[in-house]
Design goal:
The protein has helices at about 5-20, 30-35, 40-45, 55-65, 70. The chain is mainly α. It is globular.
Length: about 80
């Protein structure tokens, strides 16, 4: 399924980059539990099929050791 908009694509690409940089830890299951969402929601974020609610972004950024700005950055191909 194709992403619905560029914002979702940017978020999932950045989330995936952050997971890769950290050895895919925490897992989707762990992220879902910590954020109080379903594991399928995290999977959808990573595949660009949905985006997290704004109130989830601070904790999501904290989990991945990055800023909200980095999660939402347009330079998804660049490293930090």
């Amino acid at each position: 399924m194709k992403p619905l908009d560029n914002t979702k694509e940017v978020i999932w690409m950045n989330v995936m980059r952050e997971r890769r940089l950290r050895g895919a830890i925490p897992t989707q299951r762990e992220v879902a539990k910590i954020l109080g969402v379903k594991e399928s929601a995290v999977s959808k974020w990573e595949r660009g099929l949905a985006k997290p609610r704004a109130d989830k972004l601070p904790l999501l950024a904290k989990l991945y050791g990055c800023t909200i700005e980095e999660l939402l950055a347009d330079d998804v191909g660049g490293g930090r």
